[in-house]
Design a protein that fits this description.
The complex is a heterodimer. Chain A is mostly helical. Chain A has 17 helices and two strands. Chain A has a two-stranded antiparallel ribbon. By secondary structure, chain B is mainly alpha-helical. Chain B is globular, with a radius of gyration of 21 Å. The chains are: A mainly alpha, B mainly alpha. Chains A and B meet through α6, α14 and α17 of A and α4, α11 and α14 of B.
Chain lengths: 434, 337
């Protein structure tokens, strides 16, 4: 069996599961799984770029995904009336001043001779800068957050079409990646892991606490959509008539129609990115990346700037994760910082890449679709398995209640074990690197 | 004069004592990370969840003792349960080493593979802990709450500020001192400890001198299990036991280990206190202390808090970045592999 036939069969099996889910849970649920699967596949592509191409270990995917989500809010949501006049400009100015302070401190540190005068000068600049920054920042934030806190209480966005948020999400994530990469790349590999772990937690902490930016744990709901709303479709006589022509009622037809539109958009982005990634992999650049991955010393001896290339690929991969994050928030229609867990958004993506086949773009896409499917269905299946196990136990027993309650944590365990098994017995994944 | 005393008391109450306790917990955690790094040569991401597992076993045994009516009087029952927690944790790490890590050691896999594998272990452990005890907060502290309560202190000294010294804080600091002393005695004075240091310094040379690597690795895991459980239980007693917080402790612990220099036990302890003191001082609202110190007319009307407590993590992270930028091998020059 040739390689391409095997790949075709693998993909066919995964896609065949979609109608299967539809059989049991309806097309609405099935298409939702497919849409999330497509987004997961994009995240997996991003991680594959970092790990599969360049051997960089990034455990901060959650942070980059969340930044993408923030972009959807910042671009798509309407401006909160009066917020910018009340304090928005103050916030931006103070942030700019803060950045300026750090910049001046770095310049001074670079110019002055080493010694206690330099330390004192840098320290003084930082203290004064910080005081000015807080003096401007705090009242502005208070002003913004006091504008109808139950509904808005944040700056709002730019009110632009939300689809623009996708590339913007990529840019935000790329910016964060640049900061991390600049400091941690070029050092030992585990430092990058720890730094990315940290930045992810901090990004989530910022989203949870900076109410003026993202409404914090109050969540931003009603992020605009790039596709029509179901309710408008149901009120549209042309659409209702067409739905009747297919023999489905307008409500079902509208939900499925909307999901199909999303599906088309996501599939377009996925195919575009996949094509780009394939081109990159087969270009001289891709070959250089893999050469660096396999033997850094040799690549360096050939005159390749290893650190710069690492930085480049790290930023690219993180940007892709940011794009996927913006797409996910668009699909959900809301930004809920409380739901970002390293488990779901960092670890699961890693499992996707490793199970699918690191170093192979098709493998990453397959892994993304397959593992998301398993993750989504694992909840219901896990509960059923638990109920089956505990069926013999008397009702009302503590053990039974505990087991059924804990079923949700089972899938964590299962996915963890799956990763360890794949790493041990099939480290090259389902579609190995060629 | 009185004001100055009040300021000092407030400072000790809200900054110095909590930071000492937290620093001891971090130092114990960082010691575990650093030992694994020195001997097994990888960053163990599962360390936070190893701590959670050991603490969980201790919590369960504590509950058992409490239901039997066994207690230590004024001290928390958890101290009685601690040895069982350590044993449980030792069994766990030896199992994971046998089932998971040994295979890669035999293969001489790259460090980054070990890190990924340890991430897999992390999530298995995380799931296991949540499966057994649930994801919620668990209370297992009993006994006397304070060594000195704020009110007793006020009555004793007549100062306006109270100084509360919690039993858990006292136990934490005392235990940390004992454990660290024992560990250093073991590493510097015993034959096994010396063989561990030799193995950490130069693996090939150690092998040539007839040191059994598997034995060194096993003893390291046992020590790490002990350290992790003690750190986990102390943290749980001092704050509360919640599985997820242990995963989040990973960042300050790693920051401590790296600030001190990975692979250097002395550095891990120093790093723990550096991180703890910076976290607490940066997130503490200084209003009270400042009001006592400066003349009345200059008293601040804001909280004088540099960062909100929700950004504790950011403090460890920034310190980590600064150290990585300025001195990547850490303050005490760890090893670079």
């Amino acid at each position: 069996m040739s390689v391409s036939v095997k790949n075709l069969i693998l993909f066919a099996v995964v896609f065949a599961m979609i109608p299967l889910i539809a059989q049991f849970q309806g097309w609405n649920a099935a298409l939702f799984v497919l849409n999330m699967g497509l987004i997961s596949a994009i995240m997996a592509l991003g991680v594959n770029l970092q790990w599969g191409f360049a051997g960089l270990f990034n455990v901060g995917i959650m942070g980059f995904v969340a930044l993408g989500g923030l972009a959807a809010v910042l671009v798509g949501m309407p401006v909160t009336p009066g917020a910018w006049q009340a304090g928005g400009f103050g916030i931006v100015a103070s942030l700019f001043l803060g950045a300026l302070t750090i910049g001046i401190a770095i310049i001074v540190a670079g110019r002055m001779a080493k010694g206690w005068t330099r330390s004192l000068a840098v320290f003084g600049i930082l203290v004064v800068g910080f005081l000015v920054y807080r003096g401007l920042f705090d009242p502005s934030v208070e002003a913004v957050e006091s504008i109808e806190p139950a509904l808005t209480g944040y700056l709002g966005g730019l009110g632009l079409p939300v689809i623009l948020a996708w590339p913007v999400g990529g840019l935000l994530a790329a910016g964060a990646a640049w900061i991390i990469g600049k400091t941690a790349l070029g050092l030992r590999s585990d430092y990058l892991a720890i730094a990315t772990l940290g930045i992810a937690e901090i990004i989530i902490a910022i989203l949870k606490n900076e109410d003026w930016l993202s409404r914090g744990v109050k969540n931003v709901v009603g992020v605009p959509r790039p596709v029509p709303y179901e309710i408008n479709l149901q009120n549209d006589p042309v659409f209702v008539e067409r739905a009747a022509g297919f023999g489905v009622d307008a409500v079902t037809a509208s939900t499925i129609y909307v999901k199909l539109l999303y599906c088309g958009l996501f599939a377009f982005v996925l195919v575009l990115l996949l094509w780009l990634a394939q081109q990159a992999l087969n270009s001289p650049w891709g070959r250089m990346m893999r050469a660096i991955r396999d033997n850094e010393v040799a690549a360096e001896a050939m005159g390749k700037d290893v650190t710069a290339r690492h930085l480049q690929v790290f930023i690219l991969g993180s940007a892709i994760c940011g794009i996927a994050g913006a797409m996910m928030t668009t699909l959900d229609g809301q930004l809920t910082p409380g739901t970002y867990q390293p488990l779901r958004f960092t670890f699961l993506v890693w499992v996707m890449v490793i199970v699918g086949g690191s170093g192979n773009n098709l493998g990453a896409v397959l892994g993304g679709l397959l593992i998301y499917l398993m993750w989504d269905q694992g909840e219901t299946i896990g509960l059923q398995v638990m109920e089956w196990i505990t069926a013999g136990m008397p009702d009302g027993s503590g053990v039974k209640a505990h087991l059924i309650e804990s079923a949700a944590h089972m899938r964590l365990l299962t996915i963890g074990v799956l990763l360890l098994l794949v790493l041990r017995f099939s480290p090259r994944g389902l579609i190995p690197e060629r | 004069m009185m004001d100055l005393l009040n300021a000092i008391v407030a400072l000790s109450n809200f900054v110095i004592i909590p930071a000492m306790a937290y620093g001891s917990q971090l130092a114990l955690g960082a010691l575990g990370v650093t030992l694994i790094y020195g001997i097994l040569r990888f960053s163990n991401f599962a360390h936070g969840d190893t701590m959670a597992f050991g603490a969980m076993v201790t919590v369960l045994v504590t509950w058992l003792f409490q239901s039997w009516g066994v207690s230590l009087g004024p001290l928390p029952t958890a101290l009685l349960a601690l040895p069982f927690g350590i044993l449980g944790c030792m069994a766990l790490v030896l199992t994971t080493d046998r089932v998971v890590y040994r295979f890669y050691r035999a293969q001489k896999a790259k460090p980054v593979i070990f890190v990924i594998v340890s991430l897999g272990v992390t999530f298995v452990l995380n799931g296991l802990v949540r499966f057994i005890i649930g994801p919620d907060d668990q209370r297992f502290l009993d006994g006397e709450r304070f060594i000195i309560s704020a009110r007793t202190f006020r009555e004793m000294t007549g100062l306006r500020e109270g100084l509360a010294f919690k039993t858990t804080q006292g136990i934490t600091i005392l235990t940390a001192v004992i454990v660290v002393a024992l560990l250093f005695w073991f590493l510097n004075r015993t034959r096994t400890g010396k063989s561990m240091r030799a193995y950490s310094d130069n693996e090939d040379l150690a092998l040539l001198s007839g040191i059994n690597p598997e034995r060194v690795v096993m003893i390291t895991w046992l020590i790490v299990a002990g350290l992790a459980t003690i750190a986990g239980v102390l943290y749980g007693l001092d704050k509360s036991f919640k599985p997820f917080t242990y995963f989040q402790l990973l960042l300050p612990i790693f920051a401590s280990a790296i600030v001190g220099g990975l692979g250097n036990p002395l550095g891990a302890i120093a790093g723990g206190f550096v991180i703890a003191f910076s976290e607490v001082t940066v997130t503490y609202a200084w209003k009270k202390v400042v009001t006592y110190v400066v003349p009345e007319s200059m008293a601040p009307d804001t909280l004088v808090q540099l960062l909100s407590t929700d950004y504790k993590l950011a403090v460890s992270f920034v310190i980590l970045l600064i150290v990585l930028l300025v001195k990547p091998t850490g303050l005490f020059s760890g090893k670079a592999v």
